[in-house]
Amino acid sequence: MSKGLNLTLKVWRQKNTLSKGEIVDYQLEDISRDMSFLEMLDVLNNRLEKEGKEPIAFDHDCREGICGACSLFINGQPHGPMKGTTACQLHMRSFEDGATIVVEPWRAKAFPVVKDLVTDRSAFDRIIQAGGYISVRTGNAPDANAIPINKKDSEMAMDAAACIGCGACVAACKNASAMLFVSAKFSHLSLLPQGKVEEKERVLSMVDAMEREGFGNCTNTGACEAECPKEISMDNIARLNRKWLSANSFADV
Amino acid sequence: MLDAKIPEGHVSEKWDKHRFKTKLVNPANKRKYNIIVVGTGLAGASAAASLAELGYNVKAFCLQDSPRRAHSIAAQGGINAAKNYPNDGDSVYRLFYDTVKGGDYRAREANVYRLAQVSNNIIDQCTAQGVPFGRDYGGYLDNRSFGGAQVSRTFYARGQTGQQLLLGAYSALMAQVHTGKVTLYPRTEMLEVVVVDGQARGIITRDLINGAIERHEAHAVCLATGGYSNVYYLSTNAIPCNVTASWRAYKKGAFFANPCFTQIHPTCIPVSGDHQSKLTLMSESLRNDGRVWVPMDKDDKRRPEDIPEAERDYYLETRYPAFGNLVPRDVASRASKGVCDEGRGVGATGLAVYLDFEDAIKRDGKGTIEAKYGNLFDMYAKITGDNPYKTPMKIFPAPHYTMGGLWVDYNLMTTIPGLFALGECNFSDHGANRLGASALMQGLADGYFVIPYTIGGYLNNDLPEVTTEHEAFAQAEQAARDNTERLIANKGNRPVDDFHRELGRLVWDRCGMSRSTEGLQDALERIPEMREDFWKNVSITGTSGEFNQVLERAGRVADFYELAELMCRDALTREESCGGHFREEHQTPENEAKRDDENFAHVAAWEFKGDDAEPERHVEQLEFEEVKPTQRSYK
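^ Those are the sequences you sent over. The predicted structure of the assembly is below.
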């Protein structure tokens, strides 16, 4: 059995939204390579609690890479070094013995820090409220097979719908733009016939909401796509831009 | 005797007649009623959205930073419906029959029939919302098979069905937030139900960001707060999943039904070490193509690839030729435990069996298998470091779902008038064992298609005006404050998780896949001691007036101790084996579960009688008019 990892952790600690934060160093010994990154933090927190010190606050929920709660900026990358992987699915076998690991919260004006590594991402909910849905009341639906949908379109819609709303795209972007998130939801709905009906209103109101929330503009640098744990494509941004342009350019006749 | 208020008539007519007889709330009056929905998973989000669409004023609460993160999101495999699109013999009646049988005849027929009836509406509704279900090349919806059924009735969105259904319900909820009919309270935990003159009229909550304790008034309260598998510490549930809301309701007078009915899912990734914080499910759909086996010889330590066909024991296929690898979950889990108990388990701990895709890859090609299960294979590889395309997966059973929960009548109302329970947090429709792809169906059935009708019948009673100034609110608030302060004042030196892990191990050993009189009695002695130790020695850092995850966890673990005791008590009293409840004293010569229909064809519903008193066991007799109980056979 190989010995575990010895690590130096540099973690952002911040008491609450209004207080000033700082990086605090922690030494960890004999960390199993089979642990997930969050389990490594559990081990540290367990130690801190035994010492009567406050553990590090971080968001986590399903720990299966699907809920989008985890939001750690690890060594300068959202969710850390492994491509297409959330922090909860990142395992310590991705790190070398003796490594120094810097852990920070998402950094964006629209995602204020709540405590330590926890941020407030309710801006995403408000963008969805602006139009990230198909207006069909319960009971209104026709038979599910009434409208056949081309398999390729359906698969592309699913690719976009796989977004977990974690905010890694915003954290990765130098402009803190939410375009990948917004365009993924827009594309998911737009690629389906059911979603066509409200397409124009949707694109205008979601983009407006995004701007209101204080996210930056997209300058096509592509960091979002590179860091997205669900590998959502930037093609969605192109699709949104086309629709937004035409929605703004042509009259309803 | 508990009155389940099951409507008269043949099972196929009950829901129709009931809807006709239930009084309606006039559209203009709906805006006069406030409804609280706690939890925003499939049941909660669909209920909140649908009730708001009808015109009620809804307040929706969740623990997570966004309603979209509720744990329904992690459901992988699919959702059942009786559409019969594949033309393979399915019908509402067959779905009903399979579910009653799958639940080992411990579910209420009338509820299950209604569930099967509305299953088709769910698929229609979700498709209209834009849920990208899997389709065939003609553009029509595709189906896959799941355990406990011989028809293909499961709709899916890759391996992320729960995510897509939840995002559909969430989007409907967000649309209603936009209209102003729903007010959203994320990062808010319910601590008490407020009961005024015997009726549920509100809740007390804690704002998880600043610790503020708040009062919320309503004409009715719906709990959709999920299951309690985390009593085992290690389970497939999300870390924050808890019993607190249901438990506080129980302590206010809502009966808790069949707490010992828990589901141990057969296909999960085995434990790798003590650091393990949770277990990850590998969807049951994998059993469509994967073959489960262990070596014939318990001393066979060869790599699985090197073990020849003749020296492998495909024990599910041999023992259950009719259903093979697709037997229901309780049967599959118990069989895996059996071969591991014989010493034939594999992997470092000996607590694992193989799930092998070699034959499927040979038959259908790697591409086909990748298209079906790619994301599951990737997830497995990330967690274990093994490549399941090359070497078999290792799997082992893990706690996954709880069939027990708050007792509800046909209207989904608990024994507290005005308090409803939806989805996994009620005891509902799955009897003693839930079939795969039925949880999503039940959550959405309750939220979209049952509660919007039944709640009107209750609201039609003359409900007095009540404000949050009422004495009952003050008392409930004080109770919540006292409990929180009692926890925070505790300055022991042992972390919450250590206590939780210790409790979980005991419950797993004594009230997990296999239960015995001796083990349960031992647990009933030890749990109160462990609870006392917790209250003496737990370390809780920080204060109650801030974001404090330790305090949150401590409050939930405190409730798990009490629940664990009730589970063991229920398991001990139920002197039979059925579904997921396997009492060693009650088994057939082939080691299958042996029911006692004469004495136990009933729901056991427990009434809280005070902290120092034993709870009282009530009985709801189950009548089987359509599906006659027989020894369940999947051979």
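The mean pLDDT of chain A is 96. Chain A has two domains: 5-104, 123-249.

Shout if you want it in another format.
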